[in-house]
Amino acid sequence: MDVLSDVIAAMRTGQPRSARVRWHAPWGQQFPTVRGSAGFQVVLQGSCRLIPPGGDAPIALNVGDVVFLPHGSGYALADSPTTPLTEPACDPLNDPRFEDRYASATVGKTGQDGSQAVTVTLCGGYRLDPSRAHPLLADLPEIVHLPARLGHRPELRAAVGLLGGELDNPRLGADTVVPALLDTLLLYILRAWFDEQSERGTTAGWAAALGDPAISAALHALHRDPALPWTVETLGTQAGLSRAAFSRRFTTLIGQPPLTYLTWWRMTTAARLLRESDASLGEVATRIGYTSEFAFANAFKREYGTAPGKYRRQSRAEPQSSGLDVTAPQPVVTSPVRNAEQ
After folding, report:
1. Where is the HTH araC/xylS-type domain (predicted)?
2. Which fold has domain 3-199?
């Protein structure tokens, strides 16, 4: 797979949630910080304010605006910065109103004359395992705001429209269609942000690396086939650079040398295969570029602190939907970002 698809596949766990919510003024809703989650809000109708944590200035959101919170940071939405926020914070895991993963809901009451302002939002949340965090996502800010601009990001707008339609009028196959649309929307949001960084001339980090034709080519080659006997020289050839020039540029942009990242990615891929497939340890070793099962086991133990066979047994002993961190001494339960469904 390509780099971005690999990142999502490595970190995603459990099922995403989504809702189309119709808010009647006045309204205000808090969403708590949730470790190991990411979420989005899209304004389909009307306007509102996103209130960041820490007393930062509210962000005005209008029709078509997309907000992505990649680190599960707490925030609030309201029709006005002065509207009191609803307590307690929205919690779909412990609230019986969140039994359906995909739903449509209404908040507040409509006046007899229908004069209250209405805002319609599309929200969603993803479970992400912190133990498998990719540095690409670590580069993202706490809040990614993608304002609507006429003629920009038509594919993102199309995905929003399709998802909103499915939530507003669920039909046969919705349980298959909605998760696929949520994954598509997540990838389009990330694409849009990285494209913006490239347009701004970002010179460091993963945004710069993906926007750099040479380093991007090497990364895509490495991710397409991590089992190849890659060296700094062969990766440099993919990039069209000399060994020294490639190593220097890769390390500057990514923050670690090429072979260090290669080893880390191979171990991340191995962990996913151990959790999700029945491949033998020898087959896993071969698929990530190790000719010796013994050498693979040693490398895996250095990275995860446990032997690959034990890692597999531990990961399968935990409930599949819990998102438990099987590499940590004390399991940590992750949860999805808090939806706006009330």
Report:
1. 216-314
2. Jelly Rolls (2.60.120)
Distance CA 134, CA 136 (A): 5
Check if 3-199 and 212-305 are the same fold: no
Give the three-class secondary structure for 256.
Answer: coil
Tokens of 98: 């969140």
Per-residue pLDDT tens digits of the chain, which is 342 residues long: 788 888 888 777 777 888 888 899 999 998 888 888 888 999 999 999 999 987 789 999 999 999 999 998 899 999 999 999 886 556 554 445 444 555 555 665 555 455 567 999 998 888 887 767 788 888 899 999 999 887 788 999 999 999 988 888 888 888 888 888 988 999 999 999 988 888 887 778 898 999 899 999 999 999 999 999 999 999 999 999 999 999 999 999 999 999 999 999 999 999 999 988 999 999 999 999 999 999 999 999 999 999 999 999 998 886 543 332 333 322 222 223 333 333
Name the strand (E) or helix (H) holding 224: helix 213-224
Q: How far apart (Å, rounded) are the C-alpha atoms in residues 96 and 4? A: 35
Q: Rounded CA gap, 98 and 339, in Å?
A: 9
CATH superfamily of 212-305: Homeodomain-like (1.10.10.60)
Contact 193, 144 (CB under 8 A): yes
- Output the CA–CA distances (angstroms, integers) from residue 77 to 33, 69, 126, 161, 339, in the order listed: 14, 13, 19, 21, 11
Which candidate, 193, 191, 226, 194, places its Cα nearest to that of 209? 194
Cβ atoms within 10 A of the Cβ of 84, count? 9
**Residue for token digits 């942009």?**
253
- Burial class of residue 334 in the structure, from the number of CB atoms within 10 Å of its CB (0-12 exposed, 13-18 middle, 19+ buried): buried
Question: What's the whole-model pTM score?
Answer: 0.79
How far from 267 is each of 14, 258, 287, 304, CA to CA, in Å?
21, 14, 11, 8
DSSP 96: G
Domain ranges, ordered by start, for the chain: 3-199, 212-305
